């Protein structure tokens, strides 16, 4: 069965929702910290090889954690939604999404699923840009209502 054509006002599919500013800040801090620790370890002549490796290893560890924190995203296609959180990735058909929620005070969007569970979608978060998060949540809600059987709640 062919996928329905989205009505006007919906984003073109596929679309990726992610907290871009947060991602830029986290990755920039990670690169800067790794560079500073590497330069410091090489510039201090009194450090042993083990100490230098410890400095660089610490920089790599912090960079890895910040990279992990910058990972969340929500990708919507005609077939469904892929939710990528810190350490998990889950693929959902549109029919599985009953409701898209972003209530006041929520750290990110929550998807109510047809199996009675709720899935956090950390790719849409109002932390840095509340207006962008609200617009993204509304777009995802409209897509879920168009392609699935979902309803919305604010």
From TrEMBL:
Keyword Membrane in record: yes
Record InterPro entries: CFP-6_PH
Pfam families assigned: bPH_6
Low molecular weight protein antigen 6 PH domain: residues covered: 71-141
Residue stretches spanning the membrane: 24-47, 53-69
Keywords: Membrane, Transmembrane, Transmembrane helix
Protein name: Low molecular weight protein antigen 6 PH domain-containing protein
Organism encoding this protein: Streptomyces netropsis
């Amino acid at each position: 069965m062919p996928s329905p054509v989205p009505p006007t006002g919906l984003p073109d599919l596929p679309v990726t929702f992610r907290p871009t500013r947060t991602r830029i800040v986290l990755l920039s801090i990670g690169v800067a910290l790794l560079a500073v620790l590497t330069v410091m370890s090489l510039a201090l002549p009194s450090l042993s090889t083990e100490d230098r490796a410890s400095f660089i290893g610490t920089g790599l560890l912090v960079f890895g954690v910040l990279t992990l924190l910058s990972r969340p995203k929500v990708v919507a296609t005609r077939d469904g939604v892929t939710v990528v959180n810190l350490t998990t990735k889950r693929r959902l058909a549109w029919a599985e999404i009953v409701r898209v929620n972003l209530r006041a005070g929520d750290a990110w969007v929550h998807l109510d699923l047809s199996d009675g569970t709720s899935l956090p979608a950390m790719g849409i978060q109002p932390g840095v840009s509340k207006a962008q998060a609200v617009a993204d949540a509304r777009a995802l809600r409209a897509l879920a209502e168009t392609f699935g059987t979902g309803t919305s709640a604010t």
